[in-house]
């Protein structure tokens, strides 16, 4: 019973029809996801896919010189490792735990086998992948055309949508890596938001105290992404 409660904390697992879920249960593993854990390295083989329940995973594109920028974020609404069922066995992005928590992992081959059945899993994962592509595309546009202040607001809102609380534990270095900017830029942007009364920030802890204010301050990118996820994915988790 406890296992099913935990499984239902991930949207995709929670809405799976019982026959499909029953086939996965023997292979689903409950895993801890500590802050900073690397699930995949760029170019690495995908042996497992991950379904976060309380953790948040950042997908980063890493350049040859080691610098990186976030291209997407995955939490309890999704799955990490879409390349495994889209025809590839590796990924060009690095997957790093952005916010510590828990999740489930499943052998990539087991997921691919279910995907190839062309049933409910295929349609659900394709809709999720379309939403993820929207997030990646909008992130690229946002990073090019909007201010760091707006980007940070968007990033905080997307993260909060995938958390039960209103507090994130993040270092400035990790945030800078996510946004592809210098640490000093993150400090300046965070101080602006704190001065405006939207967040409190100290020792790697960011607490959002005015979510409505963040939404008013961010760019249109957040709403574009949220509407697409709401349109494509189920709005209720099975119980």
TrEMBL record:
Pfam families: cNMP_binding (PF00027), HTH_Crp_2 (PF13545). PROSITE patterns: HTH_CRP_2 (PS51063). Residues 146-212 form the HTH crp-type domain. Signal peptide: none annotated. Keywords: DNA-binding, Transcription, Transcription regulation. It comes from the Bacteria. Coiled coil: none annotated. SMART domains: cNMP. PANTHER family: CRP FAMILY TRANSCRIPTIONAL REGULATORY PROTEIN, HTH-TYPE TRANSCRIPTIONAL REGULATOR ARCR. This is Crp/Fnr family transcriptional regulator.
């Amino acid at each position: 019973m406890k296992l099913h409660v935990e499984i239902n904390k991930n949207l995709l697992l929670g809405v799976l029809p019982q026959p499909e879920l029953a086939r996965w249960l023997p292979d689903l593993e409950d895993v801890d996801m500590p802050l900073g854990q690397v699930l995949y390295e760029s170019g690495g083989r995908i042996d497992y896919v991950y379904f976060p329940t309380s953790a948040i995973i950042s997908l980063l594109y890493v350049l040859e010189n080691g610098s990186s920028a976030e291209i997407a974020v995955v939490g309890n609404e999704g799955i990490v490792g879409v390349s495994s069922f889209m025809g590839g066995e590796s990924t060009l992005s690095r997957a790093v735990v952005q916010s510590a928590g828990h999740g489930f992992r499943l052998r990539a081959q087991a997921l691919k086998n279910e995907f190839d059945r062309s049933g409910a899993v295929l349609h659900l994962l394709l809709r999720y992948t379309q939403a993820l592509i929207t997030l990646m595309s909008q992130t690229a546009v946002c990073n090019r055309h909007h201010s760091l202040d707006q980007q940070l607001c968007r990033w905080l809102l997307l993260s909060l949508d995938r958390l039960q609380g209103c507090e994130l534990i993040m270092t400035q270095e990790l945030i800078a890596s996510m946004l592809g900017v210098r640490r000093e830029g993150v400090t300046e942007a965070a101080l602006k938001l704190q001065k405006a009364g939207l967040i409190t920030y100290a020792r790697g802890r960011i607490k959002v105290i005015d979510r409505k204010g963040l939404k008013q301050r961010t760019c249109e990118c957040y709403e574009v992404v949220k509407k697409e996820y709401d349109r494509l994915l189920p709005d209720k988790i099975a119980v």
